UniProtKB/TrEMBL annotation:
Keywords: ATP-binding, Kinase, Nucleotide-binding, Serine/threonine-protein kinase, Transferase. SMART domains: S_TKc. Residues 1-266 form the Protein kinase domain. Pfam families: Pkinase (PF00069). This is Protein kinase domain-containing protein. GO terms for cellular component: nucleus. The keyword Nucleotide-binding applies. PANTHER family: SERINE/THREONINE-PROTEIN KINASE DOA-RELATED, SERINE_THREONINE-PROTEIN KINASE DOA.
C-alpha cells in the first residue's frame, strides 16, 4: 500500500501498479499453457508468499489465478514446440510468454487468522479443498496448499482442473484425478456432506439426480499422472511427486508451504 485518501466518504487505497493476473494472461493467450519453467518460477514465489502469511498465523482462503498478478504485462512471442504442425508450409505456431515471471499475491479480503475461522465454506469452488466440502475436521492452512496445487496444474495445462458446479460432482472429479476418498475422512464428514456417501464408505456418484452432462464432464477427466505427463515433459516426475503431496486428501498429512519450498521441482534460481 502506497497511501490512502478519502474521496466523497469513500476510503481509496493506492497500491503499486502491477500487470495482468495469470488468469487474464491465459485468457488473452487463448488459454495456451505456460512453460514448465515459468510454472516452476510462479510456484516458488506463490509458496514463498503463502509460507510467509502462514507464519503470521493467517490463511489466505481464496488462492486462484485471478489473485496472482504479474509484476509486468510485457510479453514476447515464442515458438510453441508442443503444438504439432499440420502442414510443412505453415509457420511455426507461437504463443505469448511473459518477459518476466515475477508475480505478487493479492486480495486478502477473505484472509483469516487460524482459530478464528468463522466461515463454513471458503475458496472459489474450483480451488476448494476436500475438507472444506466434507466439513468434518474443519479447515486451516492446508486448504491454501490444495488451491496452489490446482493452480499449478492449471498453469501447466491452460485449463481449470475442477470445472465443476456442485459438491458431489466436485468430489467425483477429485476421485477421478487422485483416487478414492479415504473412508476415515468420510466418517468424519458432517451435515449435508453425509448424503454424498453410501453408508459412510463410498461416494454415491452418480446418483439419480446426476445429469448426463455431469457424468460426461467427470468421465472426461484424466488421472493426475496422465495430466502431468501430458504437459510437464522432462520435469513431469518431479512435478507429479510435488502435486501428489499437495493433493493429499488428509489435510494433516498434506505438505506445508515451507516443506514444499524444499522440493526438488522448485530448486532452481528465480528469474531476475
Amino acid at each position: 500500500m502506497k497511501r490512502w485518501f478519502d474521496y466523497q466518504n469513500h476510503v481509496c487505497i493506492v497500491f503499486e501498479k502491477l500487470g495482468s493476473s495469470l488468469f487474464d494472461f491465459l485468457k488473452e493467450n487463448d488459454f495456451q499453457p505456460f512453460s514448465v519453467d515459468q510454472v516452476r518460477c510462479f510456484g516458488r514465489q506463490l509458496l514463498e508468499s503463502v509460507a510467509y502469511i502462514h507464519s503470521l498465523n493467517l490463511i489466505h482462503t481464496d488462492l486462484k489465478p485471478e489473485n496472482i498478478l504479474l509484476v509486468s504485462s510485457d510479453y514476447k512471442e515464442v515458438v510453441d514446440y508442443r503444438v504439432h504442425k499440420h502442414a510443412s508450409n505453415q509457420p511455426n505456431p507461437t504463443r505469448r510468454a511473459p518477459r518476466s515471471s515475477r508475480i505478487k499475491l493479492i486480495d486478502f479480503g477473505g484472509t483469516t487468522y487460524d482459530g478464528e475461522c468463522s466461515f463454513l465454506v471458503v475458496s472459489t469452488r474450483h480451488y476448494r479443498a476436500p475438507e472444506v466440502i466434507l466439513a468434518g475436521s474443519g479447515w486451516s492452512y492446508p486448504c491454501d496448499i490444495w488451491s496452489i496445487a490446482c493452480i499449478l496444474l492449471e498453469l501447466c495445462s491452460g485449463k481449470v482442473l475442477f470445472q465443476t458446479r456442485d459438491d458431489l460432482e466436485h468430489l467425483a472429479m477429485m476421485e477421478r484425478v487422485i483416487g478414492p476418498i479415504p473412508s476415515y475422512m468420510i466418517r468424519k464428514s458432517k451435515g449435508q456432506a453425509l448424503k454424498y456417501f453410501i453408508q459412510e464408505r463410498k461416494l454415491n456418484w452418480p446418483d439419480r439426480y446426476t445429469s448426463r452432462d455431469s457424468i460426461r464432464a467427470v468421465l472426461r477427466i484424466r488421472g493426475l499422472r496422465d495430466l502431468v505427463m501430458n504437459h510437464a515433459d522432462k520435469s513431469s516426475r518431479s512435478l507429479l511427486d510435488l502435486l501428489q503431496q499437495m493433493f493429499c486428501y488428509d489435510p494433516s498429512k498434506r505438505i506445508t508451504a515451507k516443506e514444499a519450498l524444499q522440493h526438488p521441482f522448485l530448486q532452481v534460481p528465480l528469474e531476475e
